[in-house]
Design goal:
With about 950 residues, this protein is an alpha/beta fold. The chain has 7 domains: about 180 residues, Alpha-Beta Plaits (2-Layer Sandwich); about 140 residues, P-loop containing nucleotide triphosphate hydrolases (Rossmann fold), CATH 3.40.50; about 100 residues; about 60 residues; about 140 residues; about 130 residues, Serine Threonine Protein Phosphatase 5, Tetratricopeptide repeat (Alpha Horseshoe); about 140 residues, no CATH class. The relative contact order is 0.04.
Length: about 950
């Protein structure tokens, strides 16, 4: 066994030393001697357990075993051997070890890359001294574990190969029950990299090239023609590089972007900044990104090159910690850009050895995708030559290969090759370049398209009208007519998915369907050929106008959250619909799309999901718009946008116009008067100037209007905001309690979850001193409703943290503040972050005064950035229990505790250290010093213990 690599079902074992790079830098001579001993230990242990070493990678090894039991025994022995060795290195050598069982295909005494890569990414998720085992291996060693060992279930995790979650276990040995930090899987890093419906095949050299380029340049663009695999490569590179970036990797898909100003908005939306204020979306985005360290992946830039280049230039100049990885058919043509041309997959030359070519990336891709369609498909002596020739005829273009592989359900490779031969023989002369490969891809799509039935062809082309994916209901409504029977749409879509022409993706609310950009562009051409483009675009716009109208009807109801979840994924479709309506001059549709999108009032008080930043000013200028019923709402959307840009005079004027328009037009949304939205904006203005009493009276007026209109959820939240303003502004406590009591009653009557959470917080805050037991019960109600995964309410969580602090429940305040820091970290708003930092510092003060001292300084600095004076926070200036400036009073208490533990000089030094941090550094520092368990699971009042990372 030691001399030959096992094949068939193989258990792979991969190792790597933690922190070895730094140890090489500290003492290279000691490391050289240690690595020789390390290699001897591993080689002897692997051989002693019937394993085969097939590669050495950096400071680790890769081995294969014929049985999972042998592999487990070897892993445990390696750990014990390394732990027992008296190392002369700066630190003992500690290896992370991963074990994964898969099919082992031996190629020239080595293994096909896919299962090895899977094991490698499993291993890199572990920590030094930790052994992790995949679910595939665990199944095989149940009841066969070596004596003295056991397995701990670590749950399901997404590895950085971006596949579906896998079960991971930790192997423990006798006397080895070390508590390790959380696994370094995708969940451990910020970002939005999506799970991939298919595995990543090959491209090892291209991944290495792109990774190396990103260590030297801050802008790298992967270029190549459509279908060559630019997007998949970029996403995989981003996943591999995740640990390098403190704020993770973020994918922005630009395929659906149409307008020149939409690139910045699409990037902002990835960070949930679409509804935020600022001088402009681009300026707000740059301000948010300036202190961050992250990788930004801009996918499909070719149709918006000028605007993408302008934005990336600003990012490169003003955001030193942000690296950009773009994909495009051509470069952005900006200074400092590194271009990487992505070639097709290797297919060899005529006459090359078929046995060797059968293991190229192109053939591996064909086989893998064919198995997705036909589970028992495999490469054999009978079909290898045909498969190799298919890949050669398709020039190694991944998309073309995938389209061909989808046909194995009906044709064997030889039959498939004969049918390809007719179409591609005209392209066979000579070695084809980029233009020829474009023709090859076009021919492959043509061929797949022409094999479809007429109604399948029509439906595929019509789906090109959607942006960013769509639901089955949308396809049935928009794409069906006499040519496409609505009753047959599901069957047609199923057939298109099976042929790899449509991608089906799981979503929290059900399956969504989308086209690859190359296929979508092809569909647009067919749609234009039939003269259906404008008809389908307006039908599409009408569908999404209806969707928004229904959502608007339920925005203040118990169904608000479910409708918000339905609308949030449709951002790209809503933008495309509005652009189509404006381009067609269809004022009625354009007004509906903007008017029924949540305006500033609902955004601020009942926000769940994403509020789309639609260009209201473009709609206001359309001929006939001023006569549409929804025109006053469009004016109010524009007013809120003006207010958040800092144009308060312009916002006031738009409010006046909206009130005048309401008097002359029938209401588009009966029971929702404009005056209510105007009041919400006026209250925000009062709060921003510190006029708490004025805000209280305006919120109460807004609540009266909303209640009279039957919008009980909205009325309840306005009353809650009024009660909060009274409590925090030092107004009459009895009035604050009475207002909050009324708010809770109305919220419960409305059944709106967001209203219930907000009003529970308001009453809890008012009752902290009067009835703390009831305040705690209300606080738990708020927490349970505010931390629903995917529906977190940032404002409600922050208010809950303040209530917990007022109750002196510092453990709970710590958990809530940590959650809120996660929610607010992209907003770059000092006044949102500062209270969280302050409460974290106070919560940690007794047990970790040094950390608390740093956070205290960071909180003061954040308050200063937000123009809040801290002169009220001088030591001994106000009682801690005061409503006014409670957070600042908590900071003073933190300072007293730190001084008592460490001395006044050290307190001052720690404050200076924290004040010197950027806001982003302060957030990362806080989260690093809080037990990760506080960031997951249920948060409860009266949490029993705090554990620190």
């Amino acid at each position: 066994m030691a001399g030959h690599p096992p094949s068939g079902t193989v258990t792979f074992l991969l190792t790597d030393l933690e922190g070895s790079t730094r140890m090489w830098e500290q003492d290279p001579d000691a490391m050289k001697a240690a690595m020789a001993r390390h290699d001897d230990l591993l080689e002897n242990t692997i051989a002693g357990n019937r394993g085969f070493v097939f590669a050495r990678m950096g400071d680790g090894m890769a081995a294969a075993f014929g049985t999972a039991k042998d592999a487990i025994s070897a892993a445990d022995a390696i750990r014990r051997a390394l732990a027992d060795e008296p190392w002369d290195t700066p630190r003992p050598l500690r290896a992370r070890i991963g074990l994964h069982t898969d099919e082992g295909v031996v190629i020239n005494d080595n293994y096909a890359s896919q299962p090895v890569n899977r094991c490698s990414r499993l291993m890199t998720a572990a920590h030094g001294g930790q052994i992790v085992v995949s679910g595939a291996t665990e199944v095989l060693i149940r009841g066969q574990l070596p004596e003295g060992t056991g397995l701990i279930d670590l749950g399901e995790h997404r590895l950085r190969d971006l596949g579906h979650p896998v079960k991971i276990f930790q192997l423990i040995g006798e006397g080895n029950r070390e508590d390790f930090p959380p696994l370094r899987t995708l969940e451990s890093f910020p970002g939005n990299l999506p799970a991939q419906v298919s595995s990543f095949i090959g491209r090892q050299s291209e991944v290495a090239h792109a990774t190396a380029a990103l260590t030297k340049r801050r802008v790298v663009t992967i270029t190549g023609f459509g279908g060559v695999g630019k997007t998949r490569l970029a996403i995989q590179v981003a996943a591999d590089l995740l640990p390098r970036y403190r704020e993770g990797a973020w994918l922005v898909e630009l395929a659906a972007v149409r307008g020149p100003t939409d690139v910045a908005e699409a990037v902002a939306a990835a960070f949930h900044l679409a509804g935020r204020g600022g001088p402009s979306v681009e300026d707000s985005l740059i301000e948010m990104l300036a202190p961050k360290q992250l990788l930004l992946v801009l996918d499909n830039c070719e149709h918006v090159l000028e605007s993408a280049a302008r934005l990336v230039t600003r990012i490169e100049r003003e955001c030193p910690g942000v690296t950009v990885l773009a994909t495009s058919r051509e470069g952005l043509a900006i200074d400092g850009e590194q271009l990487i041309a992505l070639p097709p997959m290797e297919v060899g030359e005529p006459g090359d050895d078929v046995g060797r070519l059968a293991h190229t990336d192109a053939v591996s891709l064909f086989v893998e995708r064919a198995r997705n369609i036909k589970a028992d498909f495999g490469l054999s002596d009978g079909n290898a030559e045909a498969v190799v020739e298919i890949c050669r005829r398709l020039d190694g273009v991944p998309l073309a290969i995938e389209l061909a592989a989808a046909r194995v359900i009906a044709l064997n490779p030889a039959e498939l090759l004969r049918r390809l031969d007719h179409r591609f023989k005209v392209l066979a002369g000579g070695r084809r370049g980029a233009v020829g490969r474009h023709a090859t891809l076009r021919a492959a799509i043509d061929w797949s398209y022409e094999l479809l039935k007429p109604d399948e062809q029509r439906l595929l082309a019509r789906m090109a009208v959607f942006s960013g994916g769509c639901t089955l209901e949308a396809i049935e409504t928009v794409c069906s007519d006499d040519a496409v029977d609505p009753e047959s749409v599901l069957d047609l879509i199923t057939n298109l998915v099976a042929r790899s022409l449509v991608i089906a993706e799981d979503h929290s609310l059900g399956t969504r369907y989308r086209l690859l950009e190359t296929i979508r562009q092809y569909g647009e051409e067919r749609l234009a050929h039939w003269g259906e483009t404008e008809t389908l675009q307006l039908r599409h716009a009408s569908f999404y106008a209806d969707l928004l109208q229904h959502a608007a009807e339920y925005v203040y109801s118990p169904q608000h959250a479910s409708w918000a979840r339905k609308v949030t994924p449709e951002r790209d479709n809503v933008h495309a619909a509005l652009n189509a309506a404006i381009d067609a001059g269809n004022a009625a549709l354009a007004v509906r799309l903007v008017a029924d999108n949540p305006d500033g009032a609902s955004q601020d008080v009942l926000h769940v999901g994403e509020v789309f930043l639609l260009p209201a000013s473009r709609v206001l200028g359309l001929a006939g718009a001023a006569e549409e019923p929804g025109y006053p709402q469009v004016l109010m959307v524009a007013a809120h946008q003006a207010f958040h840009r800092g144009d308060h005079d312009g916002a006031d004027d738009l409010c006046r116009q909206a009130l005048e328009a309401e008097r002359r037009l029938p209401s588009a949304l009966p029971g929702r008067r404009i005056e209510t939205s105007v009041c919400a904006l006026q209250a925000l203005s009062s709060l921003s100037s510190g006029a708490y009493a004025d805000a209280v009276s305006i919120y109460i007026r807004a609540a009266e209007l909303a209640r009279a209109d039957g919008c009980l959820g909205l009325a309840a939240v306005f009353l809650a905001y009024g009660a909060n303003s009274a409590s925090l502004g030092g107004s009459d406590v009895e009035q604050a309690i009475a207002t909050a009591e009324e708010a809770v009653t109305i919220a419960m009557e409305s059944g709106t979850p967001t209203a219930i959470a907000s009003t529970a917080n308001a009453l809890a805050l008012a009752l902290v001193r009067r009835d703390p037991a009831r305040a705690r019960a209300l606080l738990q109600e708020s927490i349970d409703r505010s931390l629903t995964p995917g529906e977190e309410l940032g404002q409600a969580v922050q208010m809950a943290a303040l209530v917990a602090a007022r109750l002196r429940d510092w453990k709970l305040a710590l958990a809530l503040s940590a959650r809120d820091l996660h929610l607010w970290r992209w907003v770059n708003s000092p006044l949102e972050v500062a209270p969280c930092l302050a409460l974290c510092g106070r919560a940690l003060a007794e047990e970790r005064p040094q950390v608390a001292g740093v956070l205290r300084g960071a909180a003061y600095a954040a308050f200063h950035r937000g123009s809040i004076p801290d002169n009220t926070a001088r030591e001994g200036s106000a009682p801690v229990d005061s409503n006014l400036n409670f957070v600042l009073a908590a900071l003073r208490e933190t300072g007293d505790i730190v001084a008592a533990a460490l001395g006044d000089q050290r307190r001052q030094e720690l404050r200076a250290h924290g004040a010197a941090m950027s806001m982003d550094e302060a957030i990362s520092y806080a989260l690093t010093n809080i037990d990760p368990k506080f960031l997951t699971g249920r948060v409860t009042v009266g949490m029993e213990s705090i554990a620190h990372a």
